[in-house]
Amino acid sequence: MAYYLVRARPREGALHRVRQLLDGGTIASMRPFGPALDLSLRGARYDLKGTLLWEEEDYCTPPLAMEREAVLDRHFEISSIEPVRRGEGWSKVSFYPSVWTFLNGLPVRKGERPLTRRGMPHQQLTQTSSPEIYRRLAELLFSLPGVREEVSAVSVPGARALVLEEGEPAGPPDAFMVGREFAHLHPPGDGSLHLMAPPNWVEEILRKGWGERHPAAGLLIPENAVMVYAPRDEAELATVYEIVLLSYWRAKGVEVPDPGSLV
What we know:
- The protein folds into 2 domains: 2-104, 2-Layer Sandwich (Alpha-Beta Plaits), CATH 3.30.70; 116-251, Aspartate Aminotransferase, domain 1.
- It is built from 9 helices and 12 strands.
- The longest helix is centred in the C-terminal third of the chain and has 18 residues, at 234-251.
- The radius of gyration is 19 Å and the shape is elongated.
- The chain is an alpha+beta fold.
């Protein structure tokens, strides 16, 4: 079995059609390649410049021949198919957001909002992360390229700051809390984050239940500062990571598309 890192640009209107094929089970039902292609497309990442990236398992010669004939060439212009080891392709693109975040926006967070201390320090009091979820979130955050961990300059003791390295290009002033700190993870027992959300994503984060405004937003720090609630399970971990990626790429000076802007 071979594995490939695929780079492709969607044709006009293709993402909505592909999402319908995925949600309806059409791609997964195709044999013999359907389940693998379904998994790959559901995990596709977006480089914020118009290209999708995903790892795909395949055994065709030439690579992806059946997949291209049945699905891919109708919906994408494929620019490259790079041989990789299993998992290597996903590792190379894990710091890009999911393409489906820009098509559909964020999912709705389930249940009631947690209780938080609305004054300073601004902390989450209920529905906190388990030790394992906290560990995995921290591992993802501090593996981002060009990011180093420091003690937060603006948070409670034990808060772990995500700081953009000096050599990295930087975004606008409101992409940062202080210096090059664009987010921080609160200590275990809390597990929430404060981060500088792209202004065009603040309402999406709040409306879908993933966070609340920082009490100092618009006063001591820019108004796009938000608390993102601690993830409680695997699905929430993935969404919280997506939100951090939006903050990360804006901190790097990349324009982040609006929710629902891709078609």
